[in-house]
Write a structure and sequence with these properties.
By secondary structure, the chain is an alpha/beta fold. It starts with 11 loop residues before the first helix and ends in a 9-residue tail after the last helix. The strands form 4 sheets. Strands 8-12-13-7-14-15-16-17 form an 8-stranded mixed beta sheet, sandwiched between helices. A 6-stranded parallel beta sheet has the order 3-2-1-4-5-6, with helices on both faces. β16 and β17 form a beta hairpin. α7 runs antiparallel to α14. Helix content is 36%, strand content 19%. It contains 15 helices and 18 strands. The structure holds NADPH dihydro-nicotinamide-adenine-dinucleotide phosphate.
Length: 518
């Protein structure tokens, strides 16, 4: 509970990200404006930014998709989406103001001619709203459509780099960014033909989460952790991203992706890079991303036999989650009944640099696990304990753990040892807890709010750079290739509602360790 006299604390990180500034007037063109992401995330995020007065006066949204819709229908649909998915209720006055900035044009088949239609729409928005010619293109379409759109933006001249006085242009690219190293490189190359790297914003919504950003504040705004944040004091690190949900009807996407592509290549390696990076020389895009990419490049590649030794994969069978009986992956609608797609992946990685040499980073992610939770747990080396050899309950005493919970119950827990009250000296582990919600008493913005605002402000600190994406894919592609060469595991190999396959427990047990129960 928050003490009565605690002053309201402003989140220093949001200040650091420049939330005090207002972006230039601009238009956001949303490709795929009729789609699920636009409805569930983008429009609600933009509306909430408007509610907080964080968008510029003339901010406008130009929806562009193949579906036939009038501007009025688009506004109606947008209102419905915001009603359903906004974290705050719709306020009629703010909505009217926001809705006046919503426009729509049908994209036809997205061929060259259709981009003239987009140019006309943007000219109309610019005329009516005086947006200064500044524009953000949001690719909220399936990845197969990225290339054509990027090319169209190039040939139509809509993406042209700011000529003097004609405003700036940026592009936001959704995940998945490629499906292996080659396709990611290809997409980077296509983007580079049309946009300069500083115009490209590759979304990883994990980086928009307050608690992920807080890893940097925790590490570098406190004097006491950095001196022990290294191989001398840290035994190993565990990063868990557990989902209790299944694939929620997204078989088409998931069958092609699997856990490694869906979670590890992007979110989990991004978190690892924040945990492992050196202090950047400034809290700005280039310096932060320079340090992150060094971590990714320092990860020892998994090649040959190491793939079998240092990874585990799984697929859920039927079981019980949250008191509900659920089908196995192969029984989900539209999933191949003999599918070999992994819904669980665990990896043991080494970051081969002076700070982390020989400290394993264990990563695991899976669907249909017992609970929805994402956390980073730093396991410190055990104290010698010579003094208390006979007084420990349970024996042996576990090591200290610092757990950073990314979601839900966002916060930080430090596990340490204390004397059990009583005449004899008995020792038990106890937790010291910091709960984000209780201390700050404000609802954090949605990740998409933070990221969209940063893009409008031209701050790419929380977006993945080309070299980061390629370094992450390089590692993951080696694992995918290794898995292809290994005999297929017998799937399903874990029950829905359990903590994953036996192979994942074995991966830890071989090192004399076990997964923490988050
Ligand atoms: P949808 O499948 O809903 O597609 C979005 C829109 O794109 C559709 O409404 C459709 O509009 C248009 N579209 C579909 N196929 C094509 C095509 N071949 N060429 C051009 N336009 C096409 O996707 P989502 O909205 O779910 O996702 C959009 C992007 O965001 C994807 O890259 C996805 O991976 C990513 N993403 C989505 C998340 C989500 O929660 N939905 C979460 C994280 C990432 P129309 O037919 O009117 O043109």
């Amino acid at each position: 509970m928050r003490p009565v006299d605690t002053p309201t604390v402003v989140n220093p990180l949001r200040e650091g990200l420049g939330a005090e500034r207002t972006p230039d007037p601009c238009t956001m063109v949303i490709f795929g404006a009729s789609g699920d992401l636009t409805r569930r995330k983008l429009l609600p995020a933009l509306y909430n930014l408007a509610l907080d007065g964080l968008l510029p006066d003339k901010f406008s949204i130009a929806g562009f998709a193949r579906s036939d819709m009038t501007v009025e229908q688009f506004r109606e649909q947008a209102l419905e989406s915001v009603r359903q998915f906004s974290r705050r209720p719709v306020d009629p006055k703010s909505w009217d103001r926001f809705a006046r900035g919503l426009f729509y044009a049908s994209a036809g088949s997205l061929k060259t001619d259709d981009f003239h239609r987009l140019a006309e729409l943007m000219a109309r928005v610019h005329r009516e709203r005086d947006t200064g010619g500044n524009r953000v293109f949001y690719l909220s379409v399936p990845p197969s459509a990225y290339s054509g759109i990027v090319e169209g933006l190039g040939t139509s001249g809509l993406a042209a780099r700011a000529a003097a006085g004609s405003g700036w242009a940026r592009v936001i690219v959704e995940k998945p960014f490629g499906r292996d190293l080659d396709t990611a490189r290809e997409l980077n190359q296509e983007l580079a033909q049309v946009f300069a790297e500083e115009q490209v914003y590759r979304i990883d919504h994990f980086l928009g989460k307050e608690t992920v950003q807080n890893i940097l504040v925790f590490r570098f705004a406190n004097g006491i952790f950095e001196p022990i944040w290294n191989r001398r004091y840290i035994d190993h690190v565990q990063i868990t991203a557990a989902e209790s949900l299944g694939i929620e009807g997204r078989a088409g996407y998931y069958e092609e992706a699997g856990a490694l592509r869906d979670m590890v290549q992007n979110h989990m390696l991004q978190v690892l890079s924040l945990v492992g990076m050196e202090p950047p020389i400034a809290f700005e895009a280039r310096a932060v991303r320079d340090e992150k990419v060094k971590v990714l490049r320092a990860i020892r590649p998994l090649l040959g036999e190491d793939v079998a030794r240092y990874t585990a994969r799984g697929q859920y069978g039927p079981g019980w989650v949250d008191g509900r009986e659920v089908p196995g992956y192969r029984q989900e609608p539209n999933v191949d009944p003999a599918s070999t797609t992994e819904t669980f992946a665990a990896l043991k990685l080494y970051v081969d640099n002076w700070r982390w040499a020989e400290v394993p980073f264990y990563l695991r992610t899976g669907k249909r696990l017992p609970k929805q939770t994402t956390e980073v747990a730093i396991h410190f080396k055990r104290a010698p304990l010579l003094l208390f050899r006979d007084m420990v309950d349970p024996t042996p005493l576990e090591s200290n753990v610092l757990a950073m919970r990314i979601q839900p119950n966002e916060g930080i827990t430090l596990k340490f040892h204390a004397k059990v009250p009583g005449i004899s000296v008995r020792i038990r582990s106890v937790n010291m807890d910091f709960l984000y919600g209780a201390s700050f008493a404000v609802e954090p913005p949605e990740a998409y709010e933070t990221l969209i605002l940063d893009c409008l402000l031209g701050d790419s600190t929380l977006f993945a750079r080309r070299d980061e994406i390629e370094a992450a894919w390089s590692l993951v592609t080696d694992v995918l290739n290794g898995w292809r060469e290994l005999p297929s595991p017998v799937f399903p190999n874990y029950e829905a509602g359990s903590w994953g396959p036996r192979e994942a427990q074995d991966l830890m047990a071989r090192d004399g360790r076990r997964w923490r129960r988050p």
